[in-house]
Amino acid sequence: MAAAHVLVFPFPLQGHINCMLHFATALVGAGVHVTFLHTEHNLRRLGGRASASAPAGSSPRIRFLSIPDGLPDDHRRSVADLFELFKSLAAEAIGPFRALLAPSPTTGSPAADVSVDPTSGFPPVTCLVADGLLPWALDAAEELGVPAVAFRTVSACSFLAYLSVPKLFELGELPFPAGGAGLDEPVRGVPGMESLLRRRDLPSLCRRPNETDDVGPAQQALAKLSADSGKARALILNTAASLEQSALAHVAPRMGDLFAVGPLNAMSSPAPASSLWSEDDGCIAWLDGQADRSVVYVSFGSLAVITRDQFTEFLYGLVAAGYPFLWVLRPDMVEAGQDAALREAVGGAGGSSKAHVVAWAPQRDVLRHRAVGCFLTHAGWNSTLEAAVEGVPTVCWPFSADQQINSRFVGAVWKTGLDMKDVCDRAVVEKTVREAMESAEIRRSAQALAQQVRRDVAAGGSSATEFDRLVKFIKKLSTSST
């Protein structure tokens, strides 16, 4: 019987890569061969931190390959360009992707221009696990006889909201009225969340005008993309039943099968390098010099862009809160340019002992550090889960996509933090950060949730059991495809 060999293909964004690389590493730990597929641009950005062969010290059962995304290397690939990246990848990567899956007629191995040495010991690909944002990859694999499984890197609650978009239109809850008024009006059309969601808590795309373009209304296109995951053999979500049991129950009947296998960052052994930015490890030494639970960690992820006015409000709110803070400030994060003056402003306003700024941080190490007292975050799903695993209270300021609904769950369901969406005022920042740092109730909730999700990923826990079931499912698919 041929060995199971899974091709793992994330959408080429930092958050998607992180999540799916944890998944790939967990598969390797279960004895499965894995090929992890980057774009050529991202593999170049990773440089010496990843290569076409297994990194030193990692399992010989994992390798890294790449295909083109169709954009020039100097293209920004910023949050404003995501739809362009989406279209270009689908148009330009399909040929090399199919070549990777289709055996060569002479060697029985993948085509040489996209593969490593066929004598490396890797069996043929027997299963594809592709990001749900890449439906063309899932379809191509099935056409070539390779069973395909979808993976969505968002929360189950946000995925359910995407699936519910047609119902929201049917009920008249979408589109929103022009002008952005009434964002606190309740939303009844997402099953299981009728008493919870407000308009402002729906995924950010729901606020866009209902305009048509070459793919139809944006909201309807996203709903179709989510529903298309139901055509795959199964859907994998990086979540746990204890976090999102109701949402999972509503999603499951619409999928071929459903596996809730998270938080993956707590399940896998250390993964190979995945950061597209160079991490500044010096911030750990700075944290070492701070008192326990005294530091506010601030990071809005890999895509969020803020205005200079928003930067100023956050800065002075953090300074007024009176706690030392570690701020991840990407070079491309502040609109209209960012230069040394911004970094100097942090030091000047907060004092060198009160503030530390880095371009990118080793976030998991930061969140588990004894000095961190709360996390001011964009509420991306990876960050939300990483904070949950470490029991760190959060202040959520969502930027886009699924982050609006994630922040609602943090504040109103799990009660592990505070939801500050749609407000960027220094007085609110000061008040909210202080409450998150000082509230014994929020900290107790955060620590209780951490204990629960750690039980979920431990042997016999719900996520560990689901992952074991998934590995058996993949091995069965792999057998049927050979």
UniProtKB/TrEMBL annotation:
Species name: Panicum virgatum (Blackwell switchgrass)
Q: Which PROSITE patterns match?
A: UDPGT
Stated family: Belongs to the UDP-glycosyltransferase family.
Q: What is this protein called?
A: Glycosyltransferase
What domain of life does the UniProt record list for this protein's source? Eukaryota
Q: Per the UniProt record, which EC number(s) apply here?
A: 2.4.1.-
- Annotated GO MF terms: quercetin 3-O-glucosyltransferase activity; quercetin 7-O-glucosyltransferase activity
Looking up InterPro entries in the UniProt record yields: UDP_glucos_trans (IPR002213), UDP_glycos_trans_CS (IPR035595)
Keyword list (alphabetical) reads:
Glycosyltransferase, Transferase
